[in-house]
Backbone:
Protein backbone atom coordinates (compact mmCIF):
# COMPACT_ATOMS: atom_id res chain seq x y z
CA UNK A 1 0.00 0.00 0.00
CA UNK A 2 1.57 3.28 -1.16
CA UNK A 3 0.97 6.28 1.09
CA UNK A 4 0.48 9.85 -0.05
CA UNK A 5 1.74 12.58 2.27
CA UNK A 6 0.82 16.09 1.11
CA UNK A 7 3.31 18.68 2.36
CA UNK A 8 1.57 21.76 3.73
CA UNK A 9 4.66 23.81 2.87
CA UNK A 10 2.88 24.73 -0.37
CA UNK A 11 -0.60 25.11 1.15
CA UNK A 12 -2.36 28.46 1.35
CA UNK A 13 -1.52 29.43 4.93
CA UNK A 14 -4.36 31.92 5.01
CA UNK A 15 -6.70 28.99 4.33
CA UNK A 16 -4.71 26.21 5.91
CA UNK A 17 -7.58 24.25 7.44
CA UNK A 18 -9.59 24.29 4.20
CA UNK A 19 -6.56 23.00 2.28
CA UNK A 20 -5.96 20.27 4.87
CA UNK A 21 -9.61 19.20 4.72
CA UNK A 22 -9.39 18.93 0.95
CA UNK A 23 -6.44 16.51 1.03
CA UNK A 24 -8.05 14.60 3.89
CA UNK A 25 -11.34 14.21 2.01
CA UNK A 26 -9.41 13.15 -1.09
CA UNK A 27 -7.89 10.25 0.83
CA UNK A 28 -4.38 11.41 1.73
CA UNK A 29 -2.68 9.12 4.25
CA UNK A 30 -0.43 11.49 6.20
CA UNK A 31 -0.01 15.23 6.62
CA UNK A 32 3.65 16.13 6.00
CA UNK A 33 4.71 19.11 8.10
CA UNK A 34 8.03 20.76 7.22
CA UNK A 35 9.74 22.42 10.16
CA UNK A 36 12.69 24.66 9.21
CA UNK A 37 14.86 26.67 11.57
CA UNK A 38 16.84 29.05 9.34
CA UNK A 39 20.07 27.31 10.41
CA UNK A 40 20.08 23.74 9.15
CA UNK A 41 18.24 25.05 6.09
CA UNK A 42 18.02 28.64 4.90
CA UNK A 43 14.24 28.90 5.34
CA UNK A 44 12.03 29.34 8.43
CA UNK A 45 8.58 27.74 8.53
CA UNK A 46 6.28 26.58 11.28
CA UNK A 47 6.74 25.35 14.83
CA UNK A 48 4.85 23.41 17.50
CA UNK A 49 2.44 26.27 18.22
CA UNK A 50 0.91 26.20 14.74
CA UNK A 51 1.00 22.41 14.66
CA UNK A 52 -0.88 22.22 17.94
CA UNK A 53 -3.50 24.66 16.68
CA UNK A 54 -4.37 22.38 13.72
CA UNK A 55 -4.13 19.08 15.63
CA UNK A 56 -7.81 18.82 16.50
CA UNK A 57 -8.97 20.00 13.06
CA UNK A 58 -7.95 16.84 11.20
CA UNK A 59 -7.67 13.11 11.80
CA UNK A 60 -4.68 12.76 9.46
CA UNK A 61 -1.52 11.50 11.20
CA UNK A 62 1.12 14.22 11.51
CA UNK A 63 4.35 13.31 9.72
CA UNK A 64 6.80 15.89 11.05
CA UNK A 65 9.95 16.53 9.02
CA UNK A 66 12.38 18.38 11.26
CA UNK A 67 14.97 20.33 9.29
CA UNK A 68 16.48 21.81 12.41
CA UNK A 69 19.80 21.71 14.23
CA UNK A 70 20.00 20.02 17.66
CA UNK A 71 16.60 18.33 17.18
CA UNK A 72 16.64 16.76 20.68
CA UNK A 73 15.82 20.13 22.19
CA UNK A 74 12.41 20.11 20.51
CA UNK A 75 11.28 16.47 20.27
CA UNK A 76 9.01 16.69 23.33
CA UNK A 77 7.43 19.93 22.09
CA UNK A 78 6.53 18.32 18.77
CA UNK A 79 5.16 15.22 20.49
CA UNK A 80 2.95 17.44 22.66
CA UNK A 81 1.88 19.32 19.53
CA UNK A 82 0.53 16.06 18.09
CA UNK A 83 3.30 14.44 16.03
CA UNK A 84 2.75 10.79 15.04
CA UNK A 85 6.01 10.36 13.13
CA UNK A 86 9.10 12.46 13.78
CA UNK A 87 11.89 12.59 11.19
CA UNK A 88 15.29 14.05 12.00
CA UNK A 89 18.17 14.62 9.62
CA UNK A 90 21.24 12.42 10.07
CA UNK A 91 23.31 15.52 9.20
CA UNK A 92 21.74 17.53 12.03
CA UNK A 93 21.93 15.01 14.90
CA UNK A 94 25.34 14.64 16.55
CA UNK A 95 24.21 11.59 18.52
CA UNK A 96 21.76 10.10 16.06
CA UNK A 97 21.22 6.85 17.95
CA UNK A 98 20.32 8.77 21.10
CA UNK A 99 17.97 11.06 19.20
CA UNK A 100 16.12 8.06 17.74
CA UNK A 101 15.72 6.56 21.22
CA UNK A 102 14.49 9.92 22.45
CA UNK A 103 11.76 10.03 19.78
CA UNK A 104 10.71 6.44 20.48
CA UNK A 105 10.58 7.02 24.24
CA UNK A 106 7.48 9.16 23.63
CA UNK A 107 5.72 6.34 21.78
CA UNK A 108 5.81 8.02 18.37
CA UNK A 109 7.38 6.62 15.20
CA UNK A 110 10.99 7.52 14.46
CA UNK A 111 12.48 8.27 11.05
CA UNK A 112 15.81 9.55 9.75
CA UNK A 113 16.25 11.67 6.64
CA UNK A 114 19.27 11.86 4.38
CA UNK A 115 20.13 14.83 2.19
CA UNK A 116 20.75 13.96 -1.47
CA UNK A 117 24.55 13.92 -0.99
CA UNK A 118 24.56 11.83 2.21
CA UNK A 119 25.37 8.15 1.60
CA UNK A 120 23.10 5.34 2.78
CA UNK A 121 25.98 4.11 4.96
CA UNK A 122 25.01 6.86 7.44
CA UNK A 123 22.13 4.51 8.37
CA UNK A 124 24.21 1.34 8.76
CA UNK A 125 24.05 1.13 12.54
CA UNK A 126 20.60 2.61 13.17
CA UNK A 127 18.50 1.00 10.45
CA UNK A 128 16.82 -1.65 12.66
CA UNK A 129 15.67 1.12 15.03
CA UNK A 130 13.72 3.01 12.39
CA UNK A 131 10.08 2.98 11.31
CA UNK A 132 10.88 4.97 8.20
CA UNK A 133 13.76 6.39 6.17
CA UNK A 134 13.21 9.68 4.34
CA UNK A 135 15.32 10.11 1.23
CA UNK A 136 15.45 13.75 0.16
CA UNK A 137 15.17 14.12 -3.60
CA UNK A 138 15.89 17.87 -3.46
CA UNK A 139 18.23 19.80 -1.21
CA UNK A 140 15.99 20.66 1.73
CA UNK A 141 14.73 24.14 2.45
CA UNK A 142 12.14 24.99 -0.17
CA UNK A 143 9.13 23.56 -1.95
CA UNK A 144 8.79 23.57 -5.72
CA UNK A 145 12.30 22.31 -6.59
CA UNK A 146 13.18 19.79 -9.29
CA UNK A 147 13.53 16.09 -8.47
CA UNK A 148 17.20 14.94 -8.55
CA UNK A 149 17.11 11.85 -10.83
CA UNK A 150 20.06 9.98 -9.27
CA UNK A 151 17.96 9.55 -6.11
CA UNK A 152 16.13 6.77 -7.98
CA UNK A 153 19.35 4.72 -7.64
CA UNK A 154 19.50 5.55 -3.94
CA UNK A 155 15.92 4.37 -3.43
CA UNK A 156 16.69 1.07 -5.20
CA UNK A 157 19.83 0.55 -3.12
CA UNK A 158 17.99 1.24 0.13
CA UNK A 159 15.17 -1.16 -0.77
CA UNK A 160 17.79 -3.82 -1.54
CA UNK A 161 19.63 -3.10 1.73
CA UNK A 162 16.39 -3.45 3.70
CA UNK A 163 15.56 -6.71 1.91
CA UNK A 164 18.98 -8.17 2.69
CA UNK A 165 18.48 -7.32 6.35
CA UNK A 166 14.92 -8.65 6.48
CA UNK A 167 13.44 -5.23 7.27
CA UNK A 168 10.22 -3.75 5.87
CA UNK A 169 10.96 -0.17 6.92
CA UNK A 170 8.99 2.49 5.06
CA UNK A 171 10.90 4.44 2.41
CA UNK A 172 9.62 7.98 2.09
CA UNK A 173 10.79 10.24 -0.72
CA UNK A 174 10.44 14.00 -0.51
CA UNK A 175 11.04 16.75 -3.05
CA UNK A 176 9.99 17.44 -6.62
CA UNK A 177 7.49 14.59 -6.86
CA UNK A 178 4.77 15.06 -9.46
CA UNK A 179 2.38 13.06 -11.61
CA UNK A 180 5.11 12.46 -14.20
CA UNK A 181 7.72 10.87 -11.90
CA UNK A 182 5.60 9.33 -9.10
CA UNK A 183 5.34 5.94 -10.76
CA UNK A 184 9.08 5.42 -11.28
CA UNK A 185 9.75 6.51 -7.69
CA UNK A 186 7.35 3.82 -6.46
CA UNK A 187 8.82 1.28 -8.87
CA UNK A 188 12.27 2.07 -7.46
CA UNK A 189 11.01 0.98 -4.03
CA UNK A 190 9.49 3.99 -2.27
CA UNK A 191 6.19 3.47 -0.46
CA UNK A 192 5.54 6.92 1.03
CA UNK A 193 5.44 9.87 -1.37
CA UNK A 194 5.57 13.47 -0.18
CA UNK A 195 4.17 16.07 -2.55
CA UNK A 196 3.78 19.75 -1.80
CA UNK A 197 3.59 22.03 -4.82
CA UNK A 198 2.24 19.29 -7.10
CA UNK A 199 -0.80 18.99 -4.85
CA UNK A 200 -1.42 22.39 -3.28
CA UNK A 201 -0.55 24.50 -6.32
CA UNK A 202 -3.05 22.65 -8.48
CA UNK A 203 -6.42 24.20 -9.29
CA UNK A 204 -8.27 21.20 -7.89
CA UNK A 205 -6.51 19.74 -4.85
CA UNK A 206 -8.93 16.83 -4.45
CA UNK A 207 -8.65 15.84 -8.07
CA UNK A 208 -4.85 16.00 -7.87
CA UNK A 209 -4.66 13.66 -4.87
CA UNK A 210 -6.97 11.26 -6.72
CA UNK A 211 -4.71 11.47 -9.80
CA UNK A 212 -1.66 10.56 -7.68
CA UNK A 213 -3.57 7.62 -6.22
CA UNK A 214 -4.52 6.41 -9.68
CA UNK A 215 -0.95 6.61 -10.99
CA UNK A 216 0.70 4.77 -8.12
CA UNK A 217 -1.86 2.07 -7.49
O1 LIG B 1 11.01 18.97 2.86
C1 LIG B 1 10.69 19.68 1.94
C2 LIG B 1 11.61 20.74 1.43
O2 LIG B 1 12.75 20.77 2.19
C3 LIG B 1 9.30 19.54 1.34
O3 LIG B 1 8.61 18.52 2.01
C4 LIG B 1 9.33 19.22 -0.12
O4 LIG B 1 10.17 20.04 -0.85
C5 LIG B 1 7.93 19.18 -0.70
O5 LIG B 1 7.72 20.16 -1.62
P1 LIG B 1 7.65 19.87 -3.21
O6 LIG B 1 6.78 18.66 -3.40
O7 LIG B 1 7.04 21.12 -3.73
O8 LIG B 1 9.06 19.63 -3.67
FE1 LIG C 1 9.62 17.61 3.82
Residues:
Amino acid sequence: MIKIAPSILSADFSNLIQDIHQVEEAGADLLHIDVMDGHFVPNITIGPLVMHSIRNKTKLPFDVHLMIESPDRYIEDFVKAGADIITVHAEAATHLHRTIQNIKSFGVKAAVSLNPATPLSALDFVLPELDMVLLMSVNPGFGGQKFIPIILEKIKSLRQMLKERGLDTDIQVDGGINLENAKEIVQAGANVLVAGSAIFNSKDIRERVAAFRQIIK
Observations:
- Residues 7, 32, 34, 65, 174, 194 surround fe (ii) ion (ligand 2) (CB under 6 Å).
- The beta strands are 3-6, 31-36, 62-67, 85-89, 109-114, 132-136, 170-174, 192-195.
